[in-house]
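note to self — DONT lose this again. spent like an hour looking for the file last time. sequence + predicted structure for the chain T wanted, 481 res
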Amino acid sequence: MSDPFVLGWEEWAAFPGLGLPAIKAKVDTGARTSALHAVSIEPFGPDDNLQVRFVMHPVPEDPEVEVTCAAPVVDRREVTSSNGETELRWVIEARVRIGEREWPIEVTLTNRETMQYRMLLGRAAILDDMVVSPTTSCAQNALSFELYKDFPRRKPVKRPLRIAILTREPKNYSSQRLKEVAEARGHVAEMINTARCTIAINALSPAVYYDGRKLPRYDAIIPRIGASMTNYGMAVLRQFEMTGAYILNNAEAIGASRDKLYAHQILARAGIGMPTTAFAHSPKDTKNLVSHVGGAPLVVKLLESTQGKGVVLAETTKAAESVIDAFRGLDANFIVQEFVKEAAGEDIRTLVVGGRVIASMKRKAQPGEFRSNLHRGGEATRVRITKEERRTAIRAAKSMGLAVCGVDLLRSETGPKVLEVNSSPGLEGIEKSSGKDIAGILLDHIESHVRAVSVPRRRTRAKSSASAASGAGGGTPDQGG
């Protein structure tokens, strides 16, 4: 019986068919799938022979070394990383060489630029006659990053992005500002009416059509989906996500924020303060609903209400019961909520981007009106928020899973209470009251999440021949973890 082929806990690997002569890989039997670092991933070719092109930076300490690779696609799979995050990845098959052995493995493609190793070798890629020695580093022949010394170096630069703004109101302030700022930075920003999108569901080449025309691949999607289009808009967003676009706020987070009842349950589970809220289906529970929130005055809200519409203040118990019964008679879904008297018709809108509060404004209702929404005539002014209010807004955004949102707070005697988390906050009021370029900050966030690529420089003849030797390889499918 032959001796087993020993792998160390880290190994040097090569992918000849991809033009990668040396990659330092972590051997991880705790991960089922293997993964290869890839950015600027772009599928191409017909559906029955789909391929994927990607850029690889094999040397962690030298990101200017890059190799463009290509391989046929095997699959697209959802892969859950060690930190619990799930990502939809392209899967290719390629022949890996470690020491004197070469064999085909499946590899998933993912951005590993923050990882120490550009490759993860999972247990599905380890053959039956191989053993892993957890105390040995590089049990097989050592390679070196020196193999890339003659490869072309390309300095990463910001590139123009193709951005889609999903909106049915392309002329409103927020949409226009986002388009204006994006185009001023050299990006292409296109307004897409969600209602005119058609989804073509395909495992390997998902597509979105617009008025019958197949839309191109976008780098980023800014969803500004109206409440009446929430369900269909979420389906369109999920489809764009399958094409590899960066989604500013994903469909699940938007859906949770739009369902007021579910949103309050999420906030409660996270221990975030909010007005006491009650919900019941049975008409026999009207009196209980009123008592659960401390009696009148109280607020009755339609679950699908936006911009203050469908929100009623009932100042007496009798009025509250009448409003509740009327809503039930319309077969409407609604919640009943404690009225925070000390807020005195004022609330605070905080704008959270990437886990930071970037601006805040105080909204004050018109005399005789309790709703402070700007669409109801409310007045916006700049405000300084407390550390507790800042922490509450950030926690609320995180609990809802939103990268960008408006968190509405009430100042109560017991501390800040979250009134609502808005996944498509308007920009006009908060830009004008804070004096900040909010649209620009949103574009900064998008740019930081869509990786820069390299622009080729003029090369010497020697470098040109080296480039030819390292160009995009054929390869077979790989899997990742």
